[in-house]
Amino acid sequence: MSRTVYRCVECGWMTPKWLGRCGGCRSWETLQAEEPGRQSRSHRAPPARPAVPIDAVDASTARPLPTGVGEFDRVLGGGLVPGSVVLFAGEPGIGKSTLLLDAAARFTRRHGTALYVTAEESAGQVRARADRIGALAPRLYLAAETSLEAVEAQVAAVHPALLIVDSVQTVCADGVDGTPGGVSQVREVAAAMIRLAKSHQLTVVLIGHVTKDGLIAGPRLLEHAVDVVLSFEGDRTGGLRLLRPAKNRFGTCEDVGCFRLTAGGIEEIPDPSLLFVSGSPSAAPGVCATVAMEGTRPLVTEIQALVAPSAQAVPRRSTAGLDAARVAMTLAVVERRAGVVLAGQDVFVATVGGARIREPAGDLALVLAVASAAADRPLPPGLLAVGEVGLAGEIRPVPGWGRRITEAGRLGFRCVVAPVGVEVPPDGPQVITARDVREALRSVARLGIRSAAVDAALAG
């Protein structure tokens, strides 16, 4: 008679009785009941193939195969590696299936057969999507299966070079206790997919769901077992999509791919900086650009600020695309260290195009945008600012300065406000250095932004 055990969905730790906290990873409320299956180790399996000297191994078998989707291949490290397993996660409706269906169709035109297994939608629904995005290919096979054994049979019949399973949480294995998506089922399905990839030298892409907290659903062992973990992110109200690697055994985790969701499918954005710069006139107050780093890619992003008299007892502070806590800190520095009066004023700050600035390099641009909005005078055209601002008002350097200044020059910015000590290129935009926010405002004022408010702040 089998006894019920409790397994942690995060780390796989087991205990014969329920506990409120996992004894392995120390997470709360992560233990789920499951019936342990019988395991037999009565015999030892012979090795699948004899060991060979490492210099006799054919390294060409691990060469990445490009899919033809440039942004996807760049994030992967050049393409899909035979024998590897990729976990592709994202929120519902973000475009995971659309992107992978397009990549599978392009893959078949270059390297061989692909099998797309849909366990959530019908084959007709996937065919309709393929018609819409132009992903019909004669060597792209489609199967609607929810059984792990049926998926393995389809692989044996088709012999694909690429297998896509949509999704790993909806495929179930016979003889394993638990519902689809549970700890036991996901663990068994993932293990079977890894065995398929290694034994058949095919690439397996598993589409995964995410929780409301943005984490990949299922046991954390799933992320440890696969070779690559990709996260597809974006605002569902906008068209911008970002592909980020959380784990990559074949390349860097510092890159990011940019896509746009359109009626015709997912389109690549090879030059995403143009998305984050508005088409507003250069004479608009409260507008300043910066260069944010998404991995190793510099993206010119525009920050817009609006300062208006408040009709409420407590003025509003609203942000979009920036960290609210960091914006509140920067506004306090602007008021205290630079003398720009924001008391009794509503302050609204946002980025253009749905961009998200996750690093402090945009602090200085935020300071200049707020000062410009408070003075109701525009900044000089072609101005860009890069630098971290501290609580004392000092401006600190940020990493990746060389790539940032090169990107600013490529997009035609003529002047960059930066911290003291940065390297000034011999050719490119003019670099104006400043030690603190007051000196930065004074330098910008000499370039042309003058008003009674700014003059009073500088005089104070």
Task: Supply the number of structural domains.
Answer: 3
| Terminal CA distance | 82 Å
Fraction in helix: 25-40%
Which regions are unreliable across 5 or more consecutive residues at pLDDT < 50?
38-42, 449-454
Strand content: 15-25%
**Overall pLDDT level:** 88
How are the secondary structure elements laid out?
Blueprint: E1 5-8, E2 14-15, E3 31-34, H1 70-76, E4 85-90, H2 96-108, E5 114-118, H3 123-133, E6 140-144, H4 148-158, E7 162-166, H5 183-200, E8 203-208, H6 221-225, E9 228-233, E10 240-248, E11 257-262, E12 265-268, E13 287-294, E14 297-309, E15 317-320, H7 324-337, E16 345-351, H8 363-375, E17 383-385, E18 388-389, E19 395-396, H9 401-410, E20 415-419, E21 430-434, H10 437-447, H11 452-459
Helix pairs in contact: 7-8
Description:
This protein is of the alpha/beta class. It folds into 3 domains: 1-36; 64-270, P-loop containing nucleotide triphosphate hydrolases (Rossmann fold, 3-Layer(aba) Sandwich); 275-459, Ribosomal Protein S5, domain 2 (2-Layer Sandwich), CATH 3.30.230.10. The protein is 26% helix and 24% strand. It has helices at residues 70-76, 96-108, 123-133, 148-158, 183-200, 221-225, 324-337, 363-375, 401-410, 437-447, 452-459; strands spanning 5-8, 14-15, 31-34, 85-90, 114-118, 140-144, 162-166, 203-208, 228-233, 240-248, 257-262, 265-268, 287-294, 297-309, 317-320, 345-351, 383-385, 388-389, 395-396, 415-419, 430-434. The strands form 5 sheets. Strands 6-5-7-8-4-9-10-11-12 form a 9-stranded mixed beta sheet, sandwiched between helices. It has a 4-stranded mixed beta sheet with strand order 13-14-16-15. α5 links the parallel β7 and β8. α7 (324-337) crosses α8 (363-375). The longest helix is centred in the middle third of the chain and has 18 residues, at 183-200. The radius of gyration is 27 Å and the shape is elongated. The protein starts with a strand and ends with a helix. 40% of the residues are buried.
